[in-house]
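can u pls check wat happens w/ flavin-adenine dinucleotide
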Amino acid sequence: MSAYDFDLFVIGGGSGGVRAARMAAQRGARVALAETLGTEGLGGTCVNVGCIPKKLYSYAAHYHDAFAEAQGYGWTLDAQPRLDWDALKANRAREITRLNGVYDNLLRGSGVTVLTGFARIDGEHAITLATLNADGSPGHQHFTARDILIATGGTPHVPHFAGREFVITSNEVFDLDPFPQRLLIVGGGYIACEFASIFNGLGAQVTQLYRGEQVLRGFDDEVRHFVAGEMKKSGVDLRLNAGVVDIRRTAEGLRVELEDGNVVLADAVLYATGRQPNVKGLGLEAVGVAQGAQGEVLVDAHYRTNVPHIWAVGDVTNRVQLTPVALGEAMVVVDQLFGPAAGKAPRSMSYDFIPTAVFTHPNIGTVGLTEAQARERFGQVTIFRSEFKALRHTLSGSSERTLMKLVVDSASDRVVGLHMVGAEAGEIVQGFAVALKAGATKAVFDATIGIHPTAAEEFVTMRDPIKN
Ligand SMILES: Cc1cc2nc3c(=O)[nH]c(=O)nc-3n(C[C@H](O)[C@H](O)[C@H](O)COP(=O)(O)OP(=O)(O)OC[C@H]3O[C@@H](n4cnc5c(N)ncnc54)[C@H](O)[C@@H]3O)c2cc1C
């Protein structure tokens, strides 16, 4: 018998933690998983206040355009479509509760011991769980484990300023009550842009402020400008080089004074100004786990910290903050600790060619390098670009346009970047990501037959470079 209560103790029931716990248990390990929020929080940020509810609301927002566009296709809507915000919230909450239950079943079905409480690391093999006793009084449980995995994710970061107490973050936005007719969003990252598009589509008057020159830093420059233009066209009042001085509550709503002297009145102010690793109270300093400048847990290529039996995956390591990345990292840890699945080599994680989508309206899908990154890495690159009105919008009356762009390393002919702004860009780019990962050249793209009539076929029919 092992000297420890568990072979693996996972802290955090989000994307990375649940995957690691489940896979480790399926390999025969004795596994516990602690989640502060308990069973109803299983699934973490992604399920409860991230990817899933956001995508559901994005679908809801798309109906706004769909109703308007249907008329071009001969449909008559007898009444003005109206959003029942409370119904949307209730339906979303029901689906999230269902998913929490699915995660709970998956874990328990694999033999994982699911614990409710806030876990603190007390030593390389020791965990204290702050929990509630049956009578509601605070209690503590102590556990030992051969290995500990930190998968505590991240939390929204809001800077300090006068009126900070009036703002909400992405954690609260899904349940706003009442519906914010006037929403001010501060931030220029993908979360800020997505909520701008979503609430604009749902019928709010959205103002988005961003400090920098252009939103979506890190994405291809052309994509950034193009999507910003499309968002403005659809009604988002996007203001660049803009910041907040202070916020006050008044009879007319929240009065937000801007650095340029302008004032915006809003029913709600959403700050989407970055996320920070969830490390507070975890006991990392006492046990000597090395952390970076933002508090992130530092790990090696196998996600082991400097303390040999303590590991970390997902947003708490502040690398690439995406659910599929946390899942991939979790699998690496499980293979390291308990061996790979039968007949398979131990997994490793590559951060090249991670595809991603931004669920703005229209969506962005992207994989590989931006034009600027490719120029820096390869020197000589060839750019193919196509911008058009999608067939669907020839009758819909919408002025939405689609952008597609290929970045090719001129020396090898390899396609090293693929970017799209347009309907279902995430769905389209996922497939092309396999091709880029496999090293497809532009010649392979050219030899591929298109699917007609689709927007996606444009990626295999771009013949003439627009620049070298
Ligand atoms: C608004 C929003 C939209 C997003 N959209 C997307 C998207 O479209 N696609 C995508 O891939 N990614 C998206 N993400 C990112 C994605 O949600 C995260 O990358 C992912 O959830 C990270 O998983 P994780 O396991 O590291 O942490 P999390 O999922 O955050 O889970 C951490 C869990 O640990 C628990 N916890 C923390 N401390 C303790 C403790 N001491 N003891 C016990 N439990 C603890 C927390 O309660 C939480 O449940 C989005 C994020 C946000 C905020």
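DSSP finds 13 helices and 21 strands in the chain.
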